[in-house]
Design brief:
mainly alpha
């Protein structure tokens, strides 16, 4: 979200953060197979078996945060994962992209 939108719509921003936290709580408390079962309809061209493997890979590289609070070291960790995949042309500045105002700590 743009900074101007966050400032003008704090309730929406907080609600969005809370919704993402619920999703993170779910992925941290369910198996890869259970997660795949829930999201399979969003990926009609991917088999449940392949989704499960993809989710297992995300889990194995610790790519999901515990909640929406993103510490700078964690932000850099995700950039490292993206860079290692060959998908990041340059590092993004933490202080320009991350706003933890509505994130639990």
């Amino acid at each position: 979200m743009k900074k101007s939108y966050l400032e003008a719509n704090p309730d929406v921003a907080k609600g969005f953060s809370n919704a993402i936290n619920k999703g993170l709580d779910y992925v941290h408390s369910h198996s890869a197979s259970e997660i795949a079962e829930v999201i399979t309809s969003y990926f009609p061209d991917v088999s449940k078996n392949d989704l499960t493997k993809i989710i297992e890979r995300y889990i194995s590289i610790d790519s999901w945060f515990d909640n929406t609070y993103i510490a700078e070291k964690d932000f850099n960790h995700i950039q490292e994962i993206i860079d290692n995949a060959g998908e990041l042309s340059k590092q993004a500045p933490y202080n320009k992209l991350v706003d933890t105002t509505y994130a639990p700590r």
